[in-house]
Amino acid sequence: MRRLLILVSLWLGLGGCSNVFFFPYHAHVQTPERLGLKYEDVYFSASDGTRLHGWFLPAPGRALGTILFLHGNAENVSTHIMSVRWLPERGFNVFLLDYRGYGVSEGKPTLAGVQDDVESALKMLIARPGVDAGRIVVFGQSLGGAIAVHRVAHTAYRENIRALVVESAFSGYRRITREKLGDFWLTWPFQYPLSWTVSDEYNPSEAVARISPIPLLVIHGDRDSIVPVHHGQRLFELAREPKQLWIVPGGGHIQAFQWQSYRDRFVEYLTKALSNPP
Question: For the chain, which domains are there?
């Protein structure tokens, strides 16, 4: 019982809350240079003045478009780069953003703060020389997918975005919190009261219908043990057309692009989305 009280006290001491979604790591364990990729360190400021960092990976030659990549809740861009390292050679610029508090980005992550970070990254990319401001795709994985749904639904730059892609995203902050608390016997009795301490202000389920008419692609592995597949299915059901759902047979958490067939299919999807009129 004492352990349980300590756990609950720790949860409440974190503000209930948003803090439990962020597990940043400051050191870079991998770099584009080591992977043989051309890149540029990009520094810019969020609207509240927080200094942010990301890596810009240019496509060789003229790019088909630019992808804003939003990674998951742990570590930083250096551990998530493998998810998108293959895209520049297929003709796409990629900008990997580290949210505030991640990598060398300053500040402390909060749900409101990372929304500001993404909006500021869009603003920066649109103004960046060499980027076609009308050919931007937002691609978020896991927590990054949940962040992306709300941001794209509310951004001032909707006319610049040709598609939103989310992989292994959860459908609600309270919903995933309740499920994770319910998975552990020690916190099972508290799954409902503790989940209500989590803010659902940026709930993807409530925002996803506003994505339209921007095309939405939802990707989810049917064996995802971190964010179960019903989250992706729920987002798809609540979204309006145009939309697609790719369920990856045997796929775990953010694993679709380990298969060449899904890489090729993704390139085909992006090429079509970027060639269609806005």
Answer: 29-175+201-275 (3.40.50.1820)
